[in-house]
Design goal:
Layout (H helix, E strand, L loop, with lengths): L2 H13 L6 E2 H7 L6 H9 L12 E2 L11 H8 L12 H4 L5
Length: 99
């Protein structure tokens, strides 16, 4: 994996404010790799090798959490993130809007 790309993705993730979430696609667009949302997910899966990043603030485009990562919901709730009845993050309310 390209180290520069890894650090670009992690730099964007580190900018997501508390109480907000971003989608994999949104991060991919911000680093100039619009078609590589899955690659963003792969990078985040190994992020602990590079430091401590708020990867819990990244969800899929409709607000679904990472399957099998039970702590993600708790971490988001601790930051004031609300969930819809289907268990997904309320993206209209919490998506990080970059101006």
């Amino acid at each position: 994996m390209d180290q520069d790309l890894i650090y670009q993705v992690l730099a964007v993730v580190s900018e997501i404010p508390k109480g907000k979430v971003a989608s994999y696609k949104q991060i991919a667009i911000l680093v100039g790799r619009e078609e590589n949302a899955r690659l963003v997910g792969k990078i985040l899966s190994v992020s602990s090798l590079y430091g401590d990043y708020p990867c819990h603030r990244v969800v899929n485009g409709v607000g679904r959490l990472v399957p099998g990562w039970t702590m993600q919901e708790e971490l988001l709730k601790d930051e004031g993130i609300s969930f819809k009845s289907n268990g997904y993050v309320d993206m209209k309310k919490h998506q990080w809007n970059i101006k």
